[in-house]
Structure formats: structure tokens, C-alpha cells
């Protein structure tokens, strides 16, 4: 908590005046996440809007950790603060924050909105109100070292058992030349990122998505227990103990410095791994996350991403909505995709040749999206953050050896029944 509070203080103090023409009409402040190059791209986009419209923009940096960012937003919004006009929000927050945002349908024409994937628009609609506009869409991907796999005559794994064997084989062969090499890095810290990673393992075994769309709490099942137990087995073998404290950027740091064979991460890591100064530039491949085992086995990528919302406490909602309209436009989404590998939310961009050659995963992305596993934020609404925190606790406890998966999932089921008051979300 102390960390969050100090971050809030720093974040609010750190208002970067990005662009202010001599006679700016109004000043719009926008909060953006700072994961990888997110902040830089957001700033460039907002500056361009300011230049085109004669308004000014202020950028507020927020923590890369989703839960810390949510806590900051909740404090500001609960106080009715007008300090931030435009909020970059996670796809799992519309239900939690809806009452603080305006309906963007008042300002963005339906014609322009309908190009976004319908699933994302549905996700951002709460009680008929479009509380946010889709900004970019995420899905978990498996990154691998193409050069190392080729060198040892190995192929990208189709299931988790193959991933484990391949990682071990490469480690055995390469550790003498690189003592720091790890087999598989991912996000194991007790935060929203672990919800995403572990929902992928669980769904890949056919174990559902914690709470199903009809409100049923499904997580206490043998497939889910098998999936989480499998992940526990990676720690200290193909994954370092430290993975239990890794978020996205920690995993990327290890992988990008050439010290991991496999990494689970979001699309943003692609542009950075292939940046001119990246030690693994040109050596990286991308695949679907592996399948689990058993009759329900499938590839499963967590559905993530970010949206832009306008605060109802904003003094300038019209201009704030215009900034959202600009940042979510096809032109700006294309620029962000090429520069930062942020996946567009607009269907029309998935046929764009320039984009297809810059982002190798784009051509299959619509299929990935169809089989993606959504976290249960729509059905649990404002209670989603409690659900995710309880779930993360159960998974992290299992990974650190505090109870078995079966015990922790049985307790989780009881806790979720209490949170939902008997399944009535
Ligand atoms: C990314 C995703 C977001 C997810 C978060 C977890 O930012 O876009 O949906 O909640 O990672 O760390």
C-alpha cells in the first residue's frame, strides 16, 4: 500500500507537459500505462492530436502493474478529481469503473466505432453505455529462440510437455556456455499478470475460466488443478525461482538479454525484442501457447488489452473524447502497431500489407482472438478485482508450495461463493 501511495504522489507530481501551442484552447490530461514503450507512444500520439487541434496535452505516467494502476484510478475517481480527463484502462475494468465515465457514443460516430472487433465493443459497453473505446488488444504468445531450437534440431512445442522437454534439452546443451540461461520465463508475481498466465494453463487443460459466463464458479476442477500443478513443476527446473516475482518487463529483460529459451508475453515484446539494440534481434520466433493434456486440451491465450475512457468529472469532455477518437483511429493504431507491435482493435487493419509484414502474428490473430480465453470480468462486474485477487492468491500459494492445487482451489471456491453471495454476481 505504501508503495501505491508513494507512486500516486510521484505520478501526480510527474505531469509532463507534452505539447502546448502558444494559445492552447484547452488542456487535456491523459494517463497512460508505462509498460515497455507504451508511454512514449502515447505521448507521441497525444502530441500529434494537440498539434492538429490547437489544444494542449499533459501526460500522467502510471504504474505498469495493472493492480497498482487500478488502485490509483479508484482513489482519483472516488474523489471526483478532474486531474485526469482521459484514462487508459485495462479490458477487465469497465465493470468496475463504469459509473465514473461518460458514454462515448455521444461523441464518436457509430460508423467509426463499428470497425472495432464486436467482442471488444461489447466488453466496453456497460448498461448500454460505451464507457471506453478499444485502444489495443492483447493475447498471450509464446516467444522462442529460433536460433537455439534450430541449432539443436528442435521444433517449437505444441504442448506443455514438449515445451518442458525442449527447454531441458537446450539448457543441458547450452548451460556450459551460458550459465545464466533459463528455460522458460513468464509472469509469476502475485498480480493481474499471474491471473492471465494461469488462466491460460487452466484453459489449455479444458479447466474453464474461473467463473463461467452464466455466473457458475467453475475453478475447483481436476483439470485446473493439473494445470497449476504442472506450472509448479517448472519452478527450479526450467524456470528460475525468481519467476515468482516476475511481471512482464522482468521476463522480457531476461529473454531479451539472451538468457531464456522460451518466454510467455504479450505482443508488445515483439517490437522490443527486434529493436536495433536488442541482443536477440532476428533470433526470435513466435508460436501459439502450448496445449495442455487430456480430452479438453487446446491452445489458449488470455485476452487482454487496453481501452480509453473519459472521466465524467472532466471539465472538457468534448475535447477529451476527441483525443480518444484520435488515439483509437485507424491511422494512429497503425502507427502504434508498426512502432510498438500493439495489436489494432480495428478489423480493417488486419488486411493491411504493411502491417502484415511488420507483425508476423497478425495474420493468425483473428483466429487467436476467437479461441482466446477472457477473464470473467463481464459476469463478475465490479467484483472482478476481488475475484482476480482471490484467484491469484490460490495460484501463487500453490506455486510457492503453500498447499496443493486441490486444497487451494477448494478454498478458492468457498471464497468466491462468499464474494458472489452464493453465485449471484
Ligand atoms: C497487459 C494486458 C492487460 C492485463 C495486464 C496484466 O497490460 O493488456 O489486459 O491485465 O497485461 O499484467
Characterise this structure:
The protein is of the alpha/beta class and about 425 residues long. The chain has two domains: about 1-140 and about 305-375, D-Maltodextrin-Binding Protein, domain 2 (3-Layer(aba) Sandwich); about 140-300 and about 375-420, 3-Layer(aba) Sandwich (D-Maltodextrin-Binding Protein, domain 2), CATH 3.40.190.10. The chain is built from 19 helices and twelve strands. It has helices spanning about 1-15, 40-55, 65-80, 95, 110-115, 120-125, 145-150, 160-175, 190-205, 220-235, 250-255, 270-275, 315-325, 330-340, 355-360, 365-370, 375-380, 385-400, 405-420, and strands at about 15-20, 25-30, 55-60, 85-90, 125, 130, 135-140, 140-145, 180-185, 260-265, 285, 305-310. The strands form three sheets. Strands 1-3-2-4-12-7 form a six-stranded mixed beta sheet. A four-stranded mixed beta sheet has the order 9-10-8-11, sandwiched between helices. It has a two-stranded antiparallel sheet with strand order 5-6. A hairpin with a 2-residue loop joins strand 5 (about 125) and strand 6 (about 130). Helix 9 (about 190-205) crosses helix 10 (about 220-235). The longest helix is centred in the first third of the chain and has 16 residues, at about 40-55. The radius of gyration is 21 Å and the shape is globular. It starts with a helix and ends in a 5-residue tail after the last helix. About 50% of the residues are buried. Mean pLDDT is about 95; it is low at about 1-15. Bound molecules: alpha-D-glucopyranose. Alpha-D-glucopyranose (GLC) binds next to helix 9 and strand 12.
